[in-house]
């Protein structure tokens, strides 16, 4: 009995237990006398008192001042559990270990010294069988007639069951908290087993889990079973006669083996358990909330027999908690997997990439090897997606991913970055780029094998960029960026290729970054300006429109033509902002000209493919018009053939929405793309622009002449107007006029000039709208402009 486990009740002091006991005794005697009239000599107070004390369910005892039991009833002997019914004459030193007895003695001596009772102490000790016992004890001083303390009277109640229940509830709560905190099963399971073992004497717990293939059980936790035994049963099959656990997992029901030595279920396994002395094994299946068997919880006992009802109940508690823990872990694993893997292909995703590269680098350092990082992108994946649908696109990605994964060697990693981009990390001997190239070429070949999608056989190639560790980069970020650059180079040189990174790529990448910064600054500092080039109606000679052409007033390099920055702006995505600026500036300028009373013209604005793909593009046009106050019919948008053909369906839909705003649409650079006639019919465009490349060699080049005539005739068949750009000579103009071309634009009429210059010319325009000098030949019948007349 330890002092430290003694808890003194605090505020409320119960009525003196001794007087309560005596009063109860009096009542018992009176009641007994009333019910059983007994002969006078036995109807004696002392006899009934003895009987009552002896049979009372609580421990009652009286000790002298030296701590010697003078009276101790049966219950006291049971609590103490020393195997003797009569404790008379013994002291605690005869019963308990010395240190326990000393604590008890100290407490009693204090009562004798002070005369103060010690009430409701919770005392914990182990009985002679080693079982833990809890008793609630009160001890009071016993006085003689003179009021002198002659000993101690004690009352003790066994509260072991209550304490066990409390410990069980506390333990359960703690384990559930561990589960909620996401602690590993290797922590949760032993805690659960200890909790159950603490509740039942002479049992040893074990948890086995069903393997992934559901064919066998795997050792999960058994902190008090011998490791040799757990090793021996690890991987035991699930079957109709595989000890208690394999059978419980097989049947999906509890298997209680009372005697391992006799039970046929243990025929093949009893030799394994014999050395450890276990005789009984009670196993319960652990189930998921859906009822699936996840494993078993078993209790081994060295005593043959079946579990007590309390132990049975505990098995239920244990399997329930184990089930929660396993399910929670599985859910967490699933979440982890989903967070780090791509749902479509099951491959690790971008989130895992840096870590995987870093690991590959570490291993390469240890083994003095190299790492090849291949960035790959399927060629024309978008085409498959657009033409055969997203389902086919998904199937293609899954097929390609599976083919690549099949070819992986131990230590290789394949990651899907998203879309049709993958990264392959492979280990390679140092300075063996050839070997790496051969391996990666083989991967490219597997990707290129035919795939059947929606009943059609498709072959996709891929572009691959490779960076090697350590020569092309020492960190995951560097390697990735360089492999990416190399991949872009592979695309640039015609796709379906493998390209290794080289340092000149990095230089151009840095250059690009610098240019991007410069362009950003240009947008912020408003360094752009629009020049306008007139467009003339060949029949009337009047200027009816101007094309807005952007220039960059570069602080150091002077006025830059669009060819020097528009392609880069497209590539970097900055074209969106630049295009908005152009659109707004052109609308504003045209409105300003109109407000100044100048002849009403259409302003024609170039639209880039990236701009056109922006989801709110139509809205942006609407807001440019409404903010400037320009009527939509004075705005024309020039779309290129290739822009439209990239996604015809979407382009046509957008064109109709733009047409609904009231703006004009034209196809720029006509003849350079691949517009099919049938598609052209569906476009709500007003005119076609013959590309400058077909005009420059007119009229001498027979092919160009034929093309120009064909375009003009085609346009007229479709009831479209045709404008030829790049007209520089009178011969070109004459040819086009003869061929029936409606309008022209070119240096012959006028170069692109600043708004003020256009304004001046417009002011000079003749009442019928003719451009000064233009359309007025010296004989007055047709155009006789000289090159540069207007520039
Ligand atoms: N040799 C010769 N050239 C002539 C003649 N007449 C016009 N040009 C040039 O031809 C280009 C016509 O514009 P484009 O085909 O739309 O081709 C434009 C257009 O595609 C693009 N661009 C210009 N401004 C913008 C803009 O604001 N946004 C977008 N997205 N692209 C623009 O840049 C291209 C080049 O523009 P610029 O350098 O201004 O070049 C202009 C113009 O100066 C001629 O008689 N002879």
Q: Strand order of the main beta sheet, please?
A: 18-19-21-22-23-24-25-26
Question: Largest beta sheet, briefly?
Answer: 8 strands, mixed, barrel
Low-confidence stretches: 1-14, 773-791
Q: How would you classify the helix and strand content by structural class?
A: alpha+beta
User: What would you say the CATH architecture of the largest domain is?
Assistant: Alpha-Beta Barrel
| Tally of DSSP helical segments | 28
Q: Identify every distinct bound molecule in the structure, by name, code or SMILES.
A: ligand C2E
Sum up the overall morphology in one term.
Answer: elongated
Cα Rg: 48 Å
Mean pLDDT: 87
Keyphrases for this structure?
single chain; 791 residues; alpha+beta; Beta-Lactamase; 4 domains; 8-stranded mixed barrel; 28 helices; elongated; disordered N terminus; binds ligand C2E
In words, what does this structure look like?
The protein is α+β, with helices and mostly antiparallel strands and 791 residues long. It folds into 4 domains: 3-158, Beta-Lactamase, CATH 3.30.450.20; 164-338, Beta-Lactamase (2-Layer Sandwich), CATH 3.30.450.40; 345-501, Reverse transcriptase/Diguanylate cyclase domain (Alpha-Beta Plaits); 526-764, TIM Barrel, CATH 3.20.20.450. The strands form 5 sheets. It has an 8-stranded mixed β-barrel with strand order 18-19-21-22-23-24-25-26, surrounded by 4 helices. The protein has a 5-stranded antiparallel β-sheet with strand order 2-1-5-4-3, with helices on both faces. Strand 12 and strand 13 form a beta hairpin. It binds ligand C2E. Ligand C2E is lined by residues 533, 549-550, 561-563, 566, 579, 582, 606, 608, 668, 692, 725-728, 745-747, 752.
